[in-house]
Each structure stands twice: as C-alpha cells, then as structure tokens.
C-alpha cells in the first residue's frame, strides 16, 4: 500500500484493472480533470498527456506534455480520455469520405477533430498533393507521432484523399506506413 499524504492506495481487483485498461488504453491521450494537491507537481486541470501504463495499485502512469511523468491515483485523481487509437482509425476512415472544397477546408476539419487531443499539432510539408501533420507528442505507442495525407484535386479544385496514415519520422523514408485505403 502506498500513501500520498492521507490517501490510501489499494491493489486493484482484476475487474477494476480491466475497466481502467478499457477506459485508458496504453498510448491514449488524456486530459487532467483533478489531482489531489501535490507540492512537487506543476500539473493543473486541462494539462494533456499520454498513458504509459496502469499498475496493480491503480496508478495511471502518464507522460505529460508539459514534461515529466506522474501517475494519477485511481478513485482519487481524475482524467478524461480524449483520444484512443480506435478513434484515430475512425478519423482516417472519415477523412476518405469527406468532400473538401480545398486544402484549407481540409485543415480546418482536421483541426476540429484532432486539436482537442493534440493541442501542439502542426501542419508541415504542405506541397501539392501531400500534407504532413505532426502531432508533436508520443501517442498510440509511437514516438514522434505524425500523419501523412496524400490527395488529389479535380478540375473544380475539390480535394479527394488518395491515402493517409501514420508516417515515419525518418525523412529518407518519406512514405506513409500503415496506410488506410478508402472504403468505397
């Protein structure tokens, strides 16, 4: 049993652990809602992080975007899961079927969908037919998480996604991996 001041931490039951792993899967993005006061922590509500593991005592170990790692204590501290890998898979699938009038409209849609979970994300390499999206955090058990999008435009300037997916951080490999293909 561990203590954080007057807080007693117990060992999780198997059912509790399964529930926590479902709510906060490794690699998911979370936002801090509440944490018992800790004189050594600079975290505050609204801070974002990535789940690293869940321990047997119910500690949700998180790598925080503002730096450092700190576990939240089950039934004491609270965080909200902002994005799971399954939600990213759905994002990729929706990206294929969304009609976009132009690149700016596509970027706007992407921002609306991803900015809450990835506040530091940036668009890079916006060249004709290719867009790189750097999420600027480690997430979904990947380092330097980024997304590559290849698109084409029709005679009216409308955008259609050819492929998109996770990309390598190595510029020499300039290709999309784990590519999603449109479902028609």
TrEMBL record:
Q: Which domain of life is it from?
A: Bacteria
Q: Which InterPro entries match?
A: DUF4314 (IPR025463)
Domain DUF4314, which positions? 20-80
Q: What is this protein called?
A: DUF4314 domain-containing protein
Report the source organism: Blautia pseudococcoides
